[in-house]
Amino acid sequence: MAVKLAFIGFGGVGQGLLQILQDKKEKLKQEEGLETIVVAVADVMKGSVYDPEGLDADQLLQLTREKKPLDEYKGTARTVFGLDSLETIKETNADMIVEVTFTDVKTGQPAVDHCKAAFQAGKSVITTNKGPVAVSYQELSKMAEENGAFWGFEGTVMSGTPALRLPLETLRGNSIEQITGILNGTTNYMLTEMEKGLSYEEALSQAQAHGYAEADPTSDVEGYDARYKAVILSNVVMNSPLQASDVACTGITQITQDMLTDAIERGKRIRLVAKITRTETGVEAVVKPEELDVSNQLATVPGATNAILFDCDLAGPILLTGAGAGLKETGFSLLIDLIHFERQRTAVRQ
Ligand code: HSE
């Protein structure tokens, strides 16, 4: 039975997932037993469209490529236009909500309310929004469980690089005592480029031009983005609730080219490092620029690439590195959540 998807938000990441689902339709069906149909799309800017029998994905992608509103979708007598996000979640026949809205990471809204509405209706959610996992992880995961819903959020830390499922599944049985990471691509790119001679401003505008930076790059350069990711890692991997305000945070705004050059002359590199440590009283996390030996594996991660080191009592140090952003990579993070949803659904049916 095909999974019925509703996209809440339909920007680059949502379109990225839909394109992957189109491109890999046969592979996903053959290898994963995963079939999907899109029944609804609701986007605050583009409008909304719903057909309980399924929408034409190519037409949806074509409309957005041409920057046309969803009102121009050529449907059938069944097609409904104009439902808002919450109506789409509650009133359509979707069983999986793809939550990819522009969400305020501080409040987690509107994504938190979207997740709540979905779980209350017994519907599952996959999201790449950091807000709900950083702000309301405990409440939302309980709610999902009580309502028999699946909640996937792999893409919230390091996009499609499995920074959450690696420790949660593959490293199970270990005690993870510390997690250290380069969790923000924008700042790593900027520091790398500043070492090569670019000014802070030039490096930032290049990071923006490449699409690495958040809509408001303050979140990147002040370390807030890395701080939210540290909170998610504490909540999800360390199983220890943390708030962003618990995490001391210093960004890279005070780092100059001279400081970077001076560090290199001493065999060091300055990098924005997030560290989450288990202590006797809970978990402590900090985000700040650190001088790392040039030979340190975290210091050798180039440009916008991210890296994360899990200190495991049994497996030892495990380093994972890969993209931390990108439409295809983040689209993939939603796909892997969807594949896990399908596996669980199939296991329950058997
Ligand atoms: N602005 C973020 C970064 C994107 O630079 O890593 C992914 O959260």
TrEMBL record:
Belongs to the homoserine dehydrogenase family. This is Homoserine dehydrogenase. NCBIfam families: PRK06270.1, PRK06349.1. InterPro entries: Asp/hSer_DH_NAD-bd, HDH_cat, HDH_CS, HDH_short, NAD(P)-bd_dom_sf. One of its GO terms (biological process) is threonine biosynthetic process. Residues 9-151 form the Aspartate/homoserine dehydrogenase NAD-binding domain. Pfam families: Homoserine_dh, NAD_binding_3. One of its GO terms (molecular function) is homoserine dehydrogenase activity. L-homoserine binds at E214. SUPFAM superfamilies: Glyceraldehyde-3-phosphate dehydrogenase-like, C-terminal domain, NAD(P)-binding Rossmann-fold domains. NADP(+) binds at G9, F10, G11, G12, V13, G14. Its EC number is 1.1.1.3. Pathway: Amino-acid biosynthesis; L-threonine biosynthesis; L-threonine from L-aspartate: step 3/5; Amino-acid biosynthesis; L-methionine biosynthesis via de novo pathway; L-homoserine from L-aspartate: step 3/3. NADPH binds at K130. The active site is at K229. It catalyses: L-homoserine + NADP(+) = L-aspartate 4-semialdehyde + NADPH + H(+). Residues 163-339 form the Homoserine dehydrogenase catalytic domain. Keywords: Amino-acid biosynthesis, Methionine biosynthesis, NADP, Oxidoreductase, Sodium, Threonine biosynthesis.
